[in-house]
Amino acid sequence: MHRTHALIFLAGMLPASIPSALGAQYPTHPVRVIVPLAAGGGMDAVTRALSQKLGDAMGQTFVVDNRPGAGNQIGLDIVASAEPDGYTIMMISATTVIHPLLYGSRHDVLRDFMPISQATAQGYGLVIHPSIPAKSVPEFVTYLKARPGQVNFASSGIGSPIHMTGELFQIATGTKMTHVPFKGLGAAYTDLVAGRVQSAFATVISSLPHVHAGRLRALAVSTPQRVSAMPNVPTLTEAGVPVTVVNWYGLIGPKRLSPRLQQTLSAEVAKAMHSADMEKRLAGEGSNAVGSSPAEFTAHLKREQEQWRKVIAEAGIREKLRPH
């Protein structure tokens, strides 16, 4: 038999579950995990912890590659042009959904990428400077209604989930605050603690030291249930404001990523996120492990797009961003 014909014959005898003799193995070399934010933040920390666990479980290094800037667009460009072989993936958050709704984008997270798994869910704490006399959300709402536009709220940037949570709060309570965007929440704390900005919807983990030290007062959390890191702080819903906002981190891959690799990565993420040490770590930070299936994460992304499109329209945020 001719050698070429023999190879074709043998390839045809391989089991259907094995695409090729080499392709069945994954990963065979390091996997690149894009983080669209600078090193040192919450997403970066979670991604590094998850990457270590994935590497240990799958026998290859998962290398975190920080590519901040342009509302996640730099990272999305990299993943969109990558080979769909599972060796380039990216961690995203609600910002990846919100930014295109505000500014437009050449990328759509559902159209142009393959959702793999939601990794975490975490809410925000409504914190205020102690100079504001309110001790509860109803008292804070009353205070704001008596001073429309006079109270500032900080965010980590225009279009960030923190900014959008503040807008949603104003819609739900019929109040008006002045938005003060910062280049990251870390920069905002200087002015928050000094009282130059009076309030914020801050991440639970970043606000905890300031709340415990009495530099800020926590009035509520945005999650559906109370968080173990702030057990005595009610949810916004408990406090009479029907607002629930859960920020999240999740992994996506290139558009043509095979279902086999998508499912493999999803299953490994779920195992890693629900390991005892990871769950304990996240609980201490006011976060929850998720580890969803690709279908569940896709449905979640669709709900996020619908929710934030509505908030943007009702708050007129796109109009506010236009130059006058």
In short:
The chain has 324 residues and is an alpha/beta fold.
Topology at a glance:
Elements: H1 3-12, E1 31-35, H2 42-58, E2 62-66, H3 73-80, E3 88-93, H4 94-103, H5 109-112, E4 113-122, E5 124-128, H6 137-145, E6 152-155, H7 161-173, E7 178-181, H8 185-194, E8 199-203, H9 204-212, E9 217-221, E10 247-254, H10 259-273, H11 276-284, E11 287-289, H12 294-315, H13 317-321
Parallel strand pairs: 1-2, 1-3, 6-7, 6-8
Antiparallel strand pairs: 3-10, 4-10, 4-11, 5-8, 5-9
Helix pairs in contact: 2-10, 4-12, 7-12
Fold and architecture overview:
- There is one protein chain.
- The strands form two sheets. The protein has a six-stranded mixed β-sheet with strand order 2-1-3-10-4-11, sandwiched between helices. A five-stranded mixed β-sheet has the order 7-6-8-5-9.
- It is globular and about 65 Å long.
- Helices cover 44% and strands 19% of the residues.
- Residues 1-23 have low confidence and may be disordered.
- It is an alpha/beta fold.
Features of this protein?
alpha/beta, six-stranded mixed beta sheet, 13 helices, five-stranded mixed beta sheet
Approximately how much beta-strand content do the residues carry? Answer: 15-25%
Order of helices and strands: HEHEHEHHEEHEHEHEHEEHHEHH
How large, in whole angstroms, is the Cα Rg? 22 Å
Structural class: alpha/beta
Could you give the count of β-strands? 11
Instruction: Report the total helices.
Output: 13
Largest sheet: 6 strands, mixed
> What distance separates the N and C termini?
78 Å
Shape: globular
Unreliable residue stretches: 1-23
Biggest sheet strand line-up = 2-1-3-10-4-11
Helical content band: 40-55%
Mean pLDDT: 89
Question: What does the oligomeric state look like here?
Answer: single chain
